[in-house]
Write a structure and sequence with these properties.
419 residues; 4-stranded antiparallel β-sheet; 12 helices; 16 strands; elongated
């Protein structure tokens, strides 16, 4: 017995199947993740390398060539490309499509660990990550202030605002853009050094030796064991200036001299090599990255709602605004698809009513379209797919064909009646 025969003999059963497909398909549609691109893992591994102050030629010969030579021995490598810049380099390893990207990443990390002895000692820890468009920020926020100094603004974003937005449902990570680490700058006076017969190395050695907190062990007192802590790190600029220079040229310095007598210490930022701008002013940016498989439109709306809550507690003079919103295109695509789906069902039902002249047949056709289309979302949901631009384009194409056919049938009917 075919499905059509069963539906004719048992119409109530057919109606229940149609209702179930529409209802559960609608539930699946509301729970499916919405994103601009499909949620897939591309077979590409990116390796980031940093060696401060190294020329591009040094990065190429001492770092990139060693990395590329080791990557060629990994199974499934399709191609390797690299780029070298001043102080940094990047190596991109592309694998075959059938290669498991998680296992490939483990092989790359293991290979890098085995060649660390052949790389420069001052090389920063190597970063290995999978390349996936889903890891790009979906919305970027800008924070600027006319009242707070730049270091305090960056500290406020790092300590307060990042935690506010990282707890939003669906947010996987929050990137800091235009952020520069705070540090202390020591401006050494050559005249004071010559007067005291000291060198810059003496100042550097003093900072490395005196500005440190070493483990001091324990003290046993009967049945008690107490932890001993040596407070060796300077907690403020004034304490830093009071560090004693107790060596001169590697020999003990018997003249009591403090760091503030030969240098000026001030709070500042690390070397500025990148800046962020928002609302026409220097600003600190926050890039919101959604969790894998979540609805990016829903996440963006939740972030904007959290913005309204955060704006009430911002310090005077601090402004928070949306700098880039990449979810607008996806939201419009979903809205157009919903409109096309409803329009196709109405036009098709209208054509069937004009052609057949039967309300029961029209209702059956009117329910057949959402049953087939909405029921598809149920299969997509359990298959782990997301609603992305490619899926929406395919559905819109199918629905558009239905609409075109309905319009052509309506035109033919009108022409036939005029004749």
């Amino acid at each position: 017995m075919t499905l059509s025969d069963l539906s004719i003999r048992r119409p109530v059963f057919a109606w229940m199947i149609m209702a179930a497909l529409i209802i559960f398909g609608g539930i699946a549609f509301s729970r499916m993740g919405v994103s601009q691109l499909p949620d897939v893992d591309y077979p590409v591994i990116s390796i980031s390398l940093r060696l401060t102050g190294a020329a591009p030629e040094i990065m190429e010969t001492d770092v990139v060539d060693v990395i590329e030579g080791s990557m060629m021995t990994i199974q499934g490598v399709r191609s390797i490309s690299s780029s070298s810049r001043n102080g940094s380099a990047g190596v991109t390893v592309e694998f075959e499509l059938d290669r498991n990207i998680d296992l490939a990443q483990q092989d790359v990390e293991a290979k890098i660990q085995s060649i660390l002895r052949n790389l420069p000692k001052d090389l920063d820890p190597v970063e290995v990550r999978k390349t996936n468009p889903e890891d790009n920020p979906i919305i970027m926020l800008a924070v600027e202030s006319e009242s707070l100094p730049r270091p305090k603004l960056m500290a406020y974003v790092r300590d307060v605002l990042i935690s506010k937005f990282s707890t939003v449902e669906g947010v996987g990570d929050v990137q800091q853009m235009g952020y520069i680490d705070p540090n202390l700058r020591i401006w050494v006076s050559d005249r004071a050094l010559n007067k005291s017969m000291l060198t810059v190395n003496d100042v550097v050695n003093t900072v490395g030796r005196e500005h440190s907190e070493l483990p001091a062990g324990f003290v046993n007192s009967g049945k008690k064991e107490l932890n001993v802590r040596l407070l060796g790190e300077a907690a403020s600029v004034q304490e830093f200036e009071n560090l004693i220079i107790n060596s001169r040229g590697g020999q003990p310095n018997y003249v009591s001299m403090r760091l503030g007598q030969v240098a000026k210490v001030e709070e500042g930022l690390a070397d500025i090599r990148r800046i962020g701008r928002g609302m026409g002013r220097p600003a600190v940016g926050m890039g919101i990255i959604k969790q894998r498989g979540s609805n990016e439109v829903k996440v963006a709306r939740a972030v904007k709602q959290r913005m309204q809550e955060v704006e009430k507690i911002l310090p005077p003079g601090v402004r928070l605004a949306v700098n880039v919103d990449n979810t607008q295109f996806t939201e419009r695509a979903v809205g157009d698809m919903n409109f096309t789906l409803i329009l196709s069902a109405i036009l098709t039902a209208l054509v069937c009513w004009l052609f057949l002249g039967s309300w029961s047949s029209t209702v059956n056709v009117l329910l057949a379209i959402p049953t087939s289309v909405v029921g598809t979302f149920l299969v997509l949901y359990f298959a782990g797919f997301t609603l992305n631009t490619f899926t929406l384009m395919a559905l819109s194409l199918v629905i558009g064909i239905v609409v075109d056919d309905a319009i052509m049938m309506l035109e033919n009917i009108m022409r036939h009646r005029e004749m």
